[in-house]
Amino acid sequence: MQNFLYDIGTKIYFGEGQIVHLPEAIKPYASKVLLVYGGGSIKKSGLYDTITQLFRENGIEWKELSGVEPNPRVSSVNAGAKLCKEFGLEAVVAVGGGSTIDCSKVIAEATFYDGDAWDLVTKKAPVTKVLPVFSVLTLSATGSEMDCGAVISNLDTNDKMSVAHPDARPKASILDPTYTYTVSQYQTAAGTADIMSHIFEIYFSTVKTAGLLDRMAEAMLKTCIQYGPIAYNDPTNYEARANLMWTSSLAINGLLSYGKGTPWSVHSMEHQLSAFFDITHGVGLAILTPAWMRYVLDDSTVDKFAEYAFNVWNIPMSEDKYAMANAAIDKTQAFFTQELHIPATLHEVGITEDKLEIMAEKSAVTLGSTYKPLTKEDVMNIYRACF
Ligand code: NZQ
Ligand code: ZN
To answer: Where in the numbering of this chain does the Fe-containing alcohol dehydrogenase-like C-terminal domain appear (predicted)?
Structure first.
């Protein structure tokens, strides 16, 4: 295990009805806020009315930015930052899934920058200061409610890039599992795959640890495997929604990666698919993950895959580690396609082969020191295996 500083500064209000604590969380920081949300699910569910009523009762003034897109665009970030500057807003309150929270984080960063927010995402300009961010989570997937990263898209240039700053981690997040009852089966499946991918990206690491970190990771994977299909088939099952929600936060808030950081593999490949074809992040991950696992399985990784097979999928220990590993990869793929009903191929989600080369080239830039280093050719091979 490597050295680390444990510092996860998000206050979590977890459980049904915890929204009443939102004003008390915000008020030490702000009395005028930007309320950010997506395409309208919070209006349909009544959450918008609940929050604005709480704001009125507690003397919190607000402006709104609505219509944040899945795979949030930098244009939305710029629009939000403009409102914060114009009205002297003091905090950003995100209500929604990862896209809304990510957009809010970069709005909070761009409020203190005079140019295009894209400069912050591309690192052309540094993030210097960040407005306090709060979130009310409505979709269990990204973990953005408890991490400091954000992923922003620029469809003009087919770029999807992440930016992270410690101060962008939400000061407080409301995690009420009942808010995820209305999430569609498709997004429930995608969210579960995304949570699992965050765990895989850390579990399969060049830093060898067979202790606490891996056991926690396995417990989280098993939680997704148990509760993902329940939430998919029974959307108002509180235990299922609650387990997925808390796992989504813990999977990527630093807990699993402290002492074990290595660059991620599959996310880089997926972000290119989203950047060029605007697909759902978790669906892309579910398609790529089994292909990536098969591609990186070799003598240097087989023991880890056998450990995954035994501890996560209950595949019996055997002399033949490759058989164990392959059985676990098959089970992973069957889980995504048969239990969560996610398409098995890139072709089914509208990806065409003409963009593979440019996507592989852009993706490979960050894959030189991953679990198994990947070149552009390797990424091409993994993409091709998904058709
Ligand atoms: O926009 P609305 O109307 O709210 O509808 C959304 C959207 O259409 C809907 N939805 C959300 N909550 C709902 C609901 N529908 C009904 N009931 C509810 N309670 O779901 C759709 C997808 O929402 P989105 O926020 O895009 O999904 P997700 O949470 O999966 O976020 C995906 C984005 O986060 C990025 C992804 O790349 C992608 O851009 N990621 C962010 C990360 C981070 N900040 O750490 C890490 C991840 O790996 C990921 O890259
Ligand atoms: Zn993800």
So the answer is: 188-386
